[in-house]
Amino acid sequence: MAGIKNVALPIVGIGVIAAAVLAIPDARSLIFGGNSFEGEMPPPQMRRLTEAQYRNTIADVFSNEITVVGRFEPEIRIDGLGAIGASQASISASGYEQYYGIAGSIADQVVAADNWADYMPCSPSDSAEFDRECASQIIEQYGEALFRRDLSSEDVEVWADAMQASMAQVGSFENAAGLVVEGMLSSPQFLFIIDRLEDDGRGDVMLTNHSMAARLSYFLWNSAPDEELLRAARAGELHSREGLEAQVERMIASENLRQGSRAFYDDFLDLSRFSSLEKDKLIYPAFNQAVAEDAHEQLMMFLDHHLIDNEAPYPSIFTAKETFLTRSLGMIYAVPVVPSEGWELVRFPEDDIRGGLLSHAGFTALHSHPGRSSATLRGIAVRQSLLCQTVAPAPAAVNFTVVQDVDNPEFRTARARLTQHRTDAACASCHRFIDPIGLSLENFDGAGMYRIREHGEMIDTSGEVDGIAYDDLPALENILANHEAATSCVVERLQHYATGRSNTEIDSYWNVELMRGFERSDYNFRELMATIARSEEFYAVSFPEAEGGEDLQQANITTQERNS
Amino acid sequence: MSGIERKSLSRRSLLRGMFQGTAVGVGLPWLECLVPSALAEGAAVHPLRFGTWFWGLGVTPGRWTPTVGEDGQLNLLPESAPLESVKHHLNFMTGFDAILDGRPNHVHFSGTFALRSGIACQKIGQVEGPTFENHIADHMSASKRFTTIDFAATGNPRDAYSFRSAQVRNTPEATPLQLYNRIFGGGFQRPGEGEFEPDPRTLSRLSVLSVVGEQRRSLEAQLGREDRQRLDQYFTSVREVEQQLELQTQEPVIPEACTIPESPAQTEGNYDLANVHANHAVMSRLLALALACDQTRNFNALFSNSASSLHRSGEASSHHLFTHEEFTDSELGYQVETSQFVIENMKGFATFVETLASIPEGDGTLLDNTLVLAHSDTSWAKIHAVQNIPMMTAGSFGGRIKTGQNIVANGDPITRVGLTMQQITGLPVERYGTRSMETSSPVTQLYA
Q1: What's the CA gap between B375 and B303, in Å, rounded?
Q2: What does each C-alpha distance from A291 to A278, A297, A353 come to in angstroms?
Q3: How many domains does chain B have?
Q4: What is the pTM (predicted TM-score) of this model?
Q5: Subunit contact A46:B167, Cβ cutoff 8 A
Q6: Among A281, A294, A346, B53, which is least packed by CB within 10 angstroms?
Q7: B53: in domain
């Protein structure tokens, strides 16, 4: 590893470096108690803001009155998460055009005459005169908030000069300020969360206070650091264990945690698919856009209710009986919903098939074809998303003809058709692994509506998963709730989600630690978020790799679903 | 690893090198060949355009590939019949294979990227290297407002197979309104009345963007190699926006053939066949006008996705499900519903070609100055075959392409077609493709 002198460190506040060098000879041990961990440190990161992060950041830095209209770059999923894709994605030309347009429209709103006083720390005495002091204040405030770092005086100077030059063209101070805001929002320092490093006092590097704040904030709140976190960063408090702990505790207790937990559910369960979810209007007339939106929101509310509000053990999401309904979802559930608008907490009887995660319309309809259910797609979703298991892609030369010829009189149900399919040796090994889980969900049609029969035949929902035979969906839900892979999967995914990287060596050791802690906490998801946020590994960083290394010639595109 | 061996840098790369990181407030130098036709004296020389048109799930063996009659005319078969009215503008190309050299056939994926990147991908969903039409676009649209205009008629911006690099997929417009707004919305300069005055705000925007560019070096210092590449791609995208702003500071040059359309209505984007046809027709027209107005010279159009999700309203199965599940009709000897979907895709291509041909340009039409490469992801979708992937060209590219042929190869690498497209559009590329697909042999039958 190269020495610190060989690296041109970026513009970190010089005072911060000095403070770090003078006051903290061994900063990392001070923060985390000196238990250095095993394994190579991961390189610094550059993560593209997700659409939700962008929107939350604008709402938090300015206000939620600001409208953000435009198309965002589609997410890239790698190793099961968009968060890992964000660490590898860049921005296309057509994508940047959109970001640039969005930036312009936000800036126009921010500097509009009616809004100026709400957003700006100062006003020039004369609109037609350039007021450098006020300009610098604006640049410092929004530079720190949008770039997630302390601006050096040179940085401020550069932006102030640009603003002054613009004034000559656009006439008013306010318009020129708008162009600066637009420029900042178009900068890679805003559109990517870029780690910034400083000397850790032992010849290695660590994240600056501001970069720690950004990492923490985008993980727990899926948004930019708030004023209190920025204050702590400015004061250097995040480099002390107590300072970091205090912030984690505050943020975990905050309502804003829901922004973070929901962003994770979206990524974990690949709910971005809702944006292109389509149901055939003739086959499923009850399933419209409102239902799709509610089914998405329902999953979020369901998971927050159990995992964040009630702090119920994670496995309980498989067997839960409480969820939320709107009137439009009531049509799908065939359940009367009292309030004409908004949500109602519903508790299903113990012997009802509804209630658990898998029975939600947001799961069954999402993992179906536009015109019918799919045991295979649902089985793959459980195996891959919820158990983190790998399902091999379908072999190329396969004749699927018998699988779902829905009009074949001999094979009336999905089970009959898939059983026939499984007699084909090339298909059998995978489908035995996938299908039984999906077949147990066949009581829900392609729109998530309950049915007992398919083509007049009773649907059999029994099956066998990983060597355990069961009779019906509730029994399967119990098995999944007790499945080791279910709890280890959510730990691994949250860990990868937080760090934006797939397993590195340190992550493997850390994963074992996190697993133990998760068990000890009785699978408390909220606690797991807090544990990750205080972990040394979460902030671990090394010098950027200067030369060599694997050339990243590959990007994951959202693969055409093998079976869609 | 790049599938392409280049002799020299493209003009765009040079321009990028010249302008990146510096304050830019001046227009790009104009090359004579890029001056729009309206300005040229004497015989009008019209700009040339190149682009791709994609459809998913190939064709049915024996029902698409035309024969050539004694009169030299193409005799179309049932699945190519929708192209009857435009067949004299087309070439059919058959017998070209994606050669995988023992690498897996990633279904609905390997075939497309064998042609587009010259590489048989090792991992599913992971594109190795850029796709060739980007090099062509960098070369042909260097001074244009857009390097490329891409659209997906399916409403899904993920349906795109043009990759600028492994990390950057060119994001297509997915509804007619989005496409209209991008081309003819705020950034489009309409011919004004009186003397042209550049908007001072635009000049300021350019100088502010140059501040964004100045941060580049300090950012690079703290990034690893992969992230520096990502940053580089980011700044390439910034450069395109800068160029758009620069063009706004110059008096707009509106070619004769340019008509400015009205904004289309807001429509849904989805895989419903009827809706795809409707959106595709509107989007084809908007694209054609963008080309006529010289906003770009390159495009990627998509009618249906790889492993096509197209479906007819009220039916439980999509085109993809039909290809695998539909029984072969014992009397007819083919899958009837599947074949019908192929016909629908060809109707889409006919619309696209007719639209380009409907725009007059000089003595001919826009199509005469365009080269379209149409292709699919697979040949016989039922078994995911990547041999004999169906391809067509449309347009004569300013008289450089001979049309009306059925060009038959005998298991040649599909990269021969990729090489030909690069050479004919003027790229100094000698060889293209990797391993068994490496080739230096263009499809010379295409040359007029």
Answers
A1: 11
A2: 11, 10, 20
A3: 1
A4: 0.87
A5: no
A6: A281
A7: yes
